[in-house]
Known about the structure:
Elements: E1 7-8, E2 16-17, H1 29-42, E3 51-54, H2 58-67, E4 72-75, H3 77-91, H4 97-112, H5 116-124, H6 130-142, H7 149-152, H8 163-177, H9 186-200, H10 204-212, H11 214-218
Parallel strand pairs: 3-4
Antiparallel strand pairs: 1-2
Amino acid sequence: MFKSSDCLNPNTESAYLRSSQYVAHFGSxxxxxxKTEQIIDSYGNLKSHLVFxxxxxxxxxxxxxxxxxxxxxxxxxxxxxxxxxxxAENGLKTTEEEVRKKWIEEQKELLMESCVEQVIKNxxxxxxxxxxxxxxxxxxxxxxxxxxxxxxxxxxxGIIGSGAIESAHRTVIQERMKLSxxxxxxxxxNNMLRLRVIYMNKQWCxxxxxxxxxxxxxx
Length: 219
């Protein structure tokens, strides 16, 4: 989680976050959501100033709608484009790679301009199997409110992709917990995740204060 003011050079190769907050949890989505809500709520009642950038997971979509109904939810642009690639690879009946690539690029440009309805029409006009068409069309219809990319690029820092979130998998977790020869118990993994989050959030003072408490030392 980060403020738009902490995102420098957004949507460029030199983009980076000056400051951010992390949450990590090895367990159920319910527990993860509760931890995430604690940090989100610490920023105050943001309402429409709160922006989520997520993939198409249904449980995330439902959680946002239930807990933060006034927020802005963005479907990661690159996830939306991946579905175009999958549809073209599995559904378009053509052996010409250039024809397939051109079709994909045209749809990606339409998505960027918030023309989701046109993309749906173009999918319907293809020679793909009805089942492939239905699968892709249902995906875009169910996420159409989260794909107004032309508007979203004008909000906050203009980010429409979850690259910063995806990279956190590496910087928070993998760099420490996926080293050669490592094996983790469930309890050990969760304990290390907590320490990694504290480290990345620059909150070692919490650990120091805990250790200074004689009761906790005895425990």
